[in-house]
Batch of 2 targets.
Target 1
Amino acid sequence: MNLGEFRDIYIKKIDDVNIKFIESLNIASKLKEAMMYSYTAGGKRLRPLLLLSTLYALDEDVNKGINTAASLELIHTSSLIHDDLPAMDNDDFRRGKLTNHKVYGEATAILAGDSLLVNSFQLITNDDLISSEVKLKLIDKLSACSGANGMIGGQQLDLENENKVIDIETIKKINLYKTGKLIEFALVAPAIIANLDNEYISSLEKISYHIGIAFQIKDDILDVIGNKSIIGKPVNSDKKNNKLTYVTELGLNKAEERLFHHYNTALNILNNLNIKSQLMEEIFNIIIYRNN
Ligand code: GRG
């Protein structure tokens, strides 16, 4: 199967699951509308694609990962809503549309982000295709990767280091948590679903480490040289928020060198696993060569 076919089949399934799930929530209509607004605002769906292509590479039934991948995308969406808030990056546009708080107000945007995060776990608990033991392991890993020791902790580090002169190691650490931890989940969840051993999990974690950093370096590069109408949000947001990134620290050329270093290292580890990794590699390429 090629990536286009894979994406057409499985991303549709994920969007169906998430849209039905949000529709099924019997709540205040403005909250539900705000959740739906950001989920359906677009987005490349790279994290679910990574998760499902890894399951495919491991020769597992890809359908066993649909709800887990859907859950991951809900959490990613929640983080974007919060990231754009006035107390964080204070951005007006995301995915080419007004940010959630610009449409629904700050209070509802906070609650929409909270609900997308908290309710996401129910997609795993309600999955009929995986065992209770696997569900517990997935929820444990997903909460670890999202919470204070994961993405949210990374965002806190990012905030604390605004306006500071920091070294490349600190920038790397921020990236590793803020962006890398959800990528880690995308690569490790398939190993949990496939009941693989710790040695395998550790190799996938290593790949996610490098691809997670590469992902964020590319994001930082696009923040400087991206086209606003293609990336769907303002450029130079990092400069506006006095954030140091690989690009501000090293310049574009050296940042790009680092990007390729991490990309190539991830590919080498992946190739040593001898799995059906062609789709994974195509997604790595999208991460590295994308223009949005
Ligand atoms: C949800 C309680 C709660 C807190 C959120 C704000 C925050 C804490 C974390 C920020 C995490 C963040 C936004 C990291 C940047 C990750 C990143 C590179 C996002 C862009 O991802 P893409 O390119 O976006 O996959 P699309 O729009 O394609 O989905």
Note: The chain is about 75% helix and 0% strand.
Target 2
Amino acid sequence: MRRALLSLFVLLAALALGILMFFRPAETPRRYETSFMDAFDTYSKITLYARDEAQAMAWAEEAHERLLADHRLYDIYHDYQGLNNLKTVNDNARIAPVKVDAALLDLIDFAKEMNRQTDGRMNIALGSVLRLWHDCRTQALENPDNARLPEESALRAAAAHTDLDQVVVDREASTLYIADPDLRLDVGAVAKGYAVERLARYLMDAGAEGALLSIGGNVRAIGRKGDGSAWRVGVQNPDLYAENQNLTVVGLQNLSLVSSGSYQRFYTVEGRQYHHIIDPDTLAPADYHWAVSVVTEDSGLADALSTALYVLPLAEGLRLVEQWDGAEALWVEKDGEIIRSAGFSELAGEKE
Ligand code: AMP
Ligand code: MG
């Protein structure tokens, strides 16, 4: 009898423990942060929620590695041993097709599609034109006494070699070929966002439920914060001297925020500032807006659209955004006036 009672007691105790284990609340994810300066030559910060430190470290390390790898692949300025990147393509693909990673073909195809959708304003085949501006900017930043503008004749000559149809993607052979020997690719307008989106997809597949990737101001939110609220991110005021550096704060849940503007990268010639986003018609810095910010889920799309909207007049840009499912934008005009697309406030959760 005593033994039976004891067994019953043990059984009940085991059952109770089982029930307790079953209903024990899952460990709440904790917040981890990591930052680095090397990927895409910019300051990056990754905030993520993970159940334990090992998981957080593994994701952070993988994220860093993936961004560095994409940076090398899309780099037009440096060679890396054993890698066919965009510099290899610019140097060699006019002679013979260059075999490249499928990730590069994906980016080129995406950029071609965005070129069609934006009336040719965002064009990664502008490389020969962009290089002239880039060289002058670099020289001027190194030695301000040398500050000068590119020669008008050189710009015109380069502009004759910007036809994106001359860039041939061969999926079967996994190659890129450039039929115009003077055409050069520059993916500065899309590569960072595209890489960030690739990283976001990887982290989501790996099980991340809450993360904020901020790669040089290119922001991608995955899920929500640990407490269930949306990520909150400021829209940069292009007036870097203003007291309030956030124009507004948006709530992001599975959304990206990307901005383009004249305040980001520029140099000065005879007291005038010349920034880095070039109007394909005038071949000079685009002169329509002060800054444009885009909110949409896909970070690659947000990056491409923000550059394209920067080189589009307001009316055309508004039309493009209003017809684009799931994309919203905020323009800061040159006089500081702010214009929002119809759904900007709601989609971005401003009124939360
Ligand atoms: P973002 O900061 O994303 O707006 O991209 C700016 C970068 O894109 C520049 O530094 C150039 O490398 C490149 N770029 C400038 N103008 C254009 C343009 N009209 N189309 C495509 N890329 C451009
Ligand atoms: Mg862009």
Note: The CA atoms of residues 55 and 175 lie 37 Å apart.
